[in-house]
């Protein structure tokens, strides 16, 4: 085993494997250390299996619409064993693809856990051995894990998002703690599977960093499926019962009992930095996350960190970019991080996507803005996709002085694929005039973007 490397990457998730591939492409002798499966949280217990479950739930939910348009169908239940087998095949195919990409790029891979001994040396512990490795540069991409509250996970009654992906039986009732992205996605999934879902959130609403007018459409749809929301509510105690677990929560000074078979804790994620013995280095942390500059470099010049472990945007597509930025910087190329146009998507039903500023944020930053909105009921493809229902809304926020697009949000079925259209124009500093000149196919959901731009330029075609 080679003991000295130009670059050692710790963690094989989106940030880690993208960094390793780019380092190798740039001619650096690169080692990737991963204690679990390649692909990290995203590919194994996050983005991919969660969205696979979203697709399952959405497909089952379609049965109610099919009956309304004359299709005689009956939903007879779900074989979870066969479903989990099909999900595993998809995950295995993608993890195998990551391994092939790393191998093709020339990256060496070791399966084991890493701990720092100093700023230049790590100890790797594998199944049968442990050894020390030296690196000229390190890229830490060790990710995060579900945050535990005062109620510890037991994998049975109090579950994490990972557990929620692998249940062997569908519960009749579920309480979700947290109304962020993860909490809302699982509330959407399980409510479509016929589960009675309650959501407990300490804040005054869900997705507090997003435009609340748009969030309203998501909450309205979940309410229709029987999801109960308890905002401004904190959990006091949890007690096991014969039927499951009972929470005592406090809302507006009153205590409420919330019994359910299972409780899903989706109140955020915590950094894995504490697993790396960084106290034996000079790397600085901020509330458990690793501090980095715009080049993903820590205060120790040869140590970089990317992905969820640095906090900020905990999104796989951001981790990809950060991994490549770190690699390019190590190779001596000038490249900097730009998080001003990060698309944000929530895979509920209906979906929600946004890029740039929310309306309140834009009003605070700009002297004069204009806001343009078009309901998806005005879009033919939205009505087709919803088999007659086109629930949702789109919103474009424009700086009145220069016509610059400063924010965009959209809610509806299958709208997450649209966000890149506006993100691209915003990244190129395009204006509403330029956005309005792009031709979109008909019928398509993307036509709503052109119509918004036409409305913003005072030349609407299909809206008032």
From TrEMBL:
<keyword id="KW-0285">Flavoprotein</keyword>
<comment type="similarity">
    <text>Belongs to the class-I pyridine nucleotide-disulfide oxidoreductase family.</text>
</comment>
<dbReference type="InterPro" id="IPR012999">
    <property type="entry name" value="Pyr_OxRdtase_I_AS"/>
</dbReference>
<keyword id="KW-0520">NAD</keyword>
<feature type="domain" description="Pyridine nucleotide-disulphide oxidoreductase dimerisation">
    <location>
        <begin position="342"/>
        <end position="452"/>
    </location>
</feature>
<dbReference type="InterPro" id="IPR016156">
    <property type="entry name" value="FAD/NAD-linked_Rdtase_dimer_sf"/>
</dbReference>
<keyword id="KW-0274">FAD</keyword>
<keyword id="KW-0676">Redox-active center</keyword>
<dbReference type="GO" id="GO:0004148">
    <property type="term" value="F:dihydrolipoyl dehydrogenase (NADH) activity"/>
</dbReference>
<keyword id="KW-1015">Disulfide bond</keyword>
<dbReference type="Pfam" id="PF02852">
    <property type="entry name" value="Pyr_redox_dim"/>
</dbReference>
<dbReference type="InterPro" id="IPR006258">
    <property type="entry name" value="Lipoamide_DH"/>
</dbReference>
<dbReference type="Pfam" id="PF07992">
    <property type="entry name" value="Pyr_redox_2"/>
</dbReference>
<keyword id="KW-0560">Oxidoreductase</keyword>
<dbReference type="InterPro" id="IPR036188">
    <property type="entry name" value="FAD/NAD-bd_sf"/>
</dbReference>
<dbReference type="InterPro" id="IPR050151">
    <property type="entry name" value="Class-I_Pyr_Nuc-Dis_Oxidored"/>
</dbReference>
<dbReference type="InterPro" id="IPR023753">
    <property type="entry name" value="FAD/NAD-binding_dom"/>
</dbReference>
<protein>
    <recommendedName>
        <fullName>Dihydrolipoyl dehydrogenase</fullName>
        <ecNumber>1.8.1.4</ecNumber>
    </recommendedName>
</protein>
<dbReference type="InterPro" id="IPR004099">
    <property type="entry name" value="Pyr_nucl-diS_OxRdtase_dimer"/>
</dbReference>
<dbReference type="InterPro" id="IPR001100">
    <property type="entry name" value="Pyr_nuc-diS_OxRdtase"/>
</dbReference>
<feature type="domain" description="FAD/NAD(P)-binding">
    <location>
        <begin position="6"/>
        <end position="323"/>
    </location>
</feature>
């Amino acid at each position: 085993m080679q003991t000295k490397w130009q670059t050692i990457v710790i963690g094989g998730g989106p940030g880690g494997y993208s960094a390793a591939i780019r380092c190798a492409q740039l001619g650096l002798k690169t080692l990737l250390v991963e204690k679990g499966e390649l692909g990290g949280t995203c590919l194994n217990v996050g983005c991919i299996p969660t969205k696979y479950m979203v697709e399952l739930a959405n497909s089952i939910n379609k049965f109610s619409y099919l009956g309304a348009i004359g299709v005689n169908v009956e939903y007879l239940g779900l074989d979870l064993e066969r479903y989990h087998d099909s999900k595993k095949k998809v995950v295995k195919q993608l993890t195998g693809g990551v391994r092939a990409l790393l191998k093709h790029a020339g990256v060496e891979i070791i399966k084991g856990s890493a701990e720092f001994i100093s700023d230049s040396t790590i100890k790797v512990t594998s199944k049968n051995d442990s050894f020390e490795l030296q690196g000229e540069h390190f890229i830490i991409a060790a990710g995060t894990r579900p945050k535990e509250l005062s109620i510890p996970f037991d994998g049975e009654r109090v579950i994490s998002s990972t557990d929620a992906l692998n249940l062997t039986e569908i519960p009749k009732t579920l309480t979700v703690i947290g109304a962020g992205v993860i909490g809302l996605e699982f509330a959407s999934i399980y409510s479509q599977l016929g589960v009675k879902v309650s959501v407990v959130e300490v804040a005054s609403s869900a997705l507090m960093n997003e435009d609340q007018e748009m969030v309203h459409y998501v909450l309205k749809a979940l309410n229709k499926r029987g999801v109960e929301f308890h905002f401004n509510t904190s959990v006091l105690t949890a007690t096991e019962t014969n039927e499951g677990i009972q929470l005592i929560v406090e809302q507006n000074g009153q205590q409420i009992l919330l019994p359910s078979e299972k409780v899903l804790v989706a109140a955020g994620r915590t950094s894995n930095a504490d697993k790396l013995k960084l106290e034996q280095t000079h790397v600085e942390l901020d509330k458990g996350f690793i501090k980095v500059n715009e080049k993903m470099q820590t205060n120790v010049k040869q140590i970089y960190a990317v992905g969820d472990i640095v906090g900020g945007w905990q999104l796989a597509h951001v981790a990809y970019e950060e991994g490549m930025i770190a690699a390019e910087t190590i190779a001596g190329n000038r490249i900097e991080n730009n998080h001003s146009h990060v698309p944000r998507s929530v895979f509920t039903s209906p979906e929600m996507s946004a890029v740039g500023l929310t309306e309140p944020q834009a009003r605070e930053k700009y002297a004069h803005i204009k806001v343009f909105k078009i309901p998806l009921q005005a879009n033919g493809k939205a009505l087709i996709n919803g088999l007659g229902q086109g629930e949702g809304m789109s919103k474009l926020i424009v700086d009145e002085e220069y016509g610059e697009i400063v924010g965009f949000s959209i809610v509806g079925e299958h709208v997450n694929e649209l966000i890149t259209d506006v993100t691209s124009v915003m990244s190129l500093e395009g204006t509403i005039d330029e956005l309005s000149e792009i031709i979109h196919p008909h019928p398509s959901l993307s036509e709503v973007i052109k119509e918004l731009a036409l409305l913003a330029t005072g030349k609407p075609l299909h809206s008032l």
